[in-house]
Amino acid sequence: xxxxxxxxxxxxxxxxxxxLGVKGIYLGPVAPAWVNDDIxxxxxxxxxxxxxxxxxxxxxxxxxxxxxx
Length: 69
Description:
Blueprint: E1 2-4, H1 10-19, E2 26-28, H2 37-47, E3 50-51, H3 55-62
Parallel strand pairs: 1-2, 2-3
């Protein structure tokens, strides 16, 4: 899942997805203002949430492809 922070309701959508047990969410294009390094570390560890990066890399990761660096 990819969640964009273009609207204020994105926070409630994120918490709803987490309450439903959805993991592996990509956030972007930038982290919301309320997410600091400590909060991001917890979200990443507990819910596999990550910031979006390069489109091809994100798509490959979301689809489970092996990425050659």
